[in-house]
Amino acid sequence: MYCIIVQTRLKPGTRERFLEAMLPNAEASVREEPGCHAFDVIEDRDEPDLIHLYEIYTDQQALVAHKETSHYKESRAVVNELIAEQKVIRADVLAMNPER
């Protein structure tokens, strides 16, 4: 499995617009993409303008396929202008714990 963790620092005052675009993208990714196993949107408790995306895919090709979906493209069209800074961690998933 392949994982990316995207740390996104938003421009001040753009949090709501970002979430309005990102939350449906995350939901659609898990619901509609067989290669997307997790897409969590996480807000930093101390800095509300700092959002983390935790995404798990079958492999790197599944991430490439994700970037071709309409829900990804629609969200990126909105969120690109809201981002002050973004960093990406790329990792291999060693274990996924099952849901309870």
Task: Name its key features.
ABM_dom, four-stranded antiparallel sheet, Antibiotic biosynthesis monooxygenase, 100 residues, Alpha-Beta Plaits, alpha+beta
Q: Would you list the SSEs in sequence order as H and E?
A: EHEEHHE
Question: How would you name the oligomeric state of the polypeptide chains in this document?
Answer: single chain
Please give the share of residues in helix.
Answer: 25-40%
> What's the helix count?
3
CATH fold label: Alpha-Beta Plaits
How are the secondary structure elements laid out?
Layout: E1 2-10, H1 15-32, E2 36-43, E3 50-57, H2 60-66, H3 70-79, E4 83-92
Antiparallel strand pairs: 1-3, 1-4, 2-3
Textual characterization of the structure:
The chain is an alpha+beta fold and 100 residues long. The protein has one domain (2-92): Alpha-Beta Plaits, CATH 3.30.70.100. Helix content is 35%, strand content 35%. The chain has helices at residues 15-32, 60-66, 70-79, and strands at residues 2-10, 36-43, 50-57, 83-92. It has a four-stranded antiparallel sheet with strand order 2-3-1-4, with helices on one face. Strand 2 (36-43) and strand 3 form a beta hairpin. Helix 1 packs antiparallel against helix 3. The longest helix has 18 residues, at 15-32. The radius of gyration is 13 Å and the shape is globular. The two termini are 20 Å apart. This is Antibiotic biosynthesis monooxygenase. Keywords: Monooxygenase, Oxidoreductase. GO terms for molecular function: monooxygenase activity. Residues 2-93 form the ABM domain. It holds the Pfam family ABM.
